Amino acid sequence: MKNDIKQILVIRLSSLGDILLTTPVLRSLKYLYSDCQITFLCKNEYLNAVINNPNINNFIALKAGINEQEVIEKISKEKFDLILDFQNNLRSRQIIKGIKIPLLRFKKPTLKKFLLVNLKLNLFGRYLSIPELYAHTLPGLALDDYGVDLFVPQEYITLLNKDEKYIGFIPGSKHFSKRWPDEYFIQLGKLLNKYGYTIVLFGGKDDKNICGKINAEITKSKNLCNDNNLYQTVTDMRQCSIIIGNDSGLIHAASSLPVPLIVLFGSSVEEFGFAPYRKEAVIIQNEALKCRPCSHFGRNECPKKHFDCMNGITPNIVFEKIKKTLAL
Known about the structure:
alpha/beta; Rossmann fold; 2 domains; 6-stranded parallel beta sheet; 5-stranded parallel beta sheet
């Protein structure tokens, strides 16, 4: 079968972090099938996460549903030898419905997640990252020892002064229950200012209010939140001594850099597989809480009304981790 695989379609429609976590698998696919051509299908808004990846030969962009039939027809006409559906949801199934091509789907640990969230019964056993779970889709696919890939065009230049000391904050996340309180980021930023660090705020379109609020309260800070310019964000992250952030897509982008990370886990837990991949990151979480996790996606409010999963991680706790990491 190995010699017969020449054209592979990989499907991961969204979101940023999930797409970046496919990149270790793409490297291994290229190693296993050295002559294969890989086509990657994702939503148009996430194309920049992979478009410069040398392990991908072709791209299909899904544009907010308006070209779904066009995408279906394109896949039908291409002579793929294998489809790897790492999305495995109703939409990805609809796109490849009826296509007579060998197909392997990512097996989501749905039952284990349900039991952990609802009954606090942990059947995950050994920790498996999302890239490892993706790799299990194809028997015999072994991952290497490297992390996620994010290839930034050389023309991007940092907006930061290379002679200053910076610490990056990623205060946003799609769901409230994954966000460390803004007030805590502000308190931490003020502490770090005393050590001569300028705080740099990173985020996308949805994070502008959060980043603006924090920026206004920290004297020495720069707000580099932008309109989802991933390449500029990663270029500027590279100048930071350390990056602190929530469980989010930008944290996985930051994990592609040789910059230390501190990741704050609230309602989510490591068992779900979304810790930075093959990266020596410090993960801070309130492990004493019996109500964690309350969701495997995230919530718009704390169902217990106390939000102790994040409120219990004080700025001083994070500050001590930073001091240890940077030997302050």
